[in-house]
Amino acid sequence: MIGVSKIFEYEQKEEILKFEHMKKDDNELLNYLINTYSSYIFSIVNRICDKSCSVEDIEECVSDIIISLWRNSEKIDFNKGTLKTYIAATSRNTAINLLKSTKTRKFFLPIKEDVLSFSDDPIDTILKKENNEAILDFLSQLNEIDRKIFIKRFYFGDSYKKISKDLNIKVRIIEGKIYRCRIKLKKFLTGEGSV
After folding, report:
1. How far apart are the C-alpha atoms of 137 and 150, rounded to whole Å?
2. What would the pLDDT profile of 134-192 be if each residue is shown by its tens digit?
3. d(CA 187, CA 166)
4. Which architecture, in CATH terms, is 109-195?
5. Same fold yes or no, 1-107 and 109-195
6. Tens of pLDDT, residues 130-146
7. How many other CB atoms sit within 10 Å of the CB of residue 66?
8. 3-state per-residue secondary structure call for the chain
9. How far from each other are the two terminal CA atoms of the chain, in whole angstroms?
10. Is the domain covering 1-107 a CATH 1.20.810.10 domain?
């Protein structure tokens, strides 16, 4: 029986070969990105922007991401992750920038390290990995509801109102839980306490 990691490794090698081949023909690469990833990119951008951006803004953002990926295809380093991971990181960061530029809602990420980020600095990459592992460890110690709220707020950027609606919990309770989670996380990361 072939292990899951072998299947993943094989699929990743196949993806790399296909992508490298398509980089030789600009039109083929652009069409591949549009046909294969536009829905995926749209879902990420739409999830982050929620109702703060118009559909037109989201569609324009998706187009910008695809063009950026196409223009910067030579910079994609498969040693740092899969194409899908790179696309997710690019989409998420671009969507956050769009959200900030609309200024229709305050959005912040107190966790500066992005799980999906790519960096040229190996020390920066190691530090981010260590911080991400610490955050994952922190999340594993939260109860299920607090973990869902934390992820919805700080990873997906959901508003308090959306989290409240999704989980059927009052907004004031969501606000309190997020406040307490941030204090717990700060203590956890500085070694001042546990969850």
Report:
1. 13
2. 777 888 888 889 988 888 887 777 888 889 998 999 989 998 888 888 888 888 877 76
3. 28
4. Orthogonal Bundle (1.10)
5. no
6. 666 777 788 888 888 99
7. 19
8. CCCHHHHHHHHHHHHHHHHHHHCCCHHHHHHHHHHHHHHHHHHHHHHHHCCCCCHHHHHHHHHHHHHHHHHCHHHCCCCCCCHHHHHHHHHHHHHHHHHHHHCCCCCCCCCCCCCCCCCCCHHHHHHHHHHHHHHHHHHHHCCHHHHHHHHHHHCCCCCHHHHHHHHCCCHHHHHHHHHHHHHHHHHHHHCCCCC
9. 40
10. no
In angstroms, the Cα distances linking 43 to 47, 126, 156, 172 are 6, 29, 11, 28
Q: What pTM did the predictor assign? A: 0.49
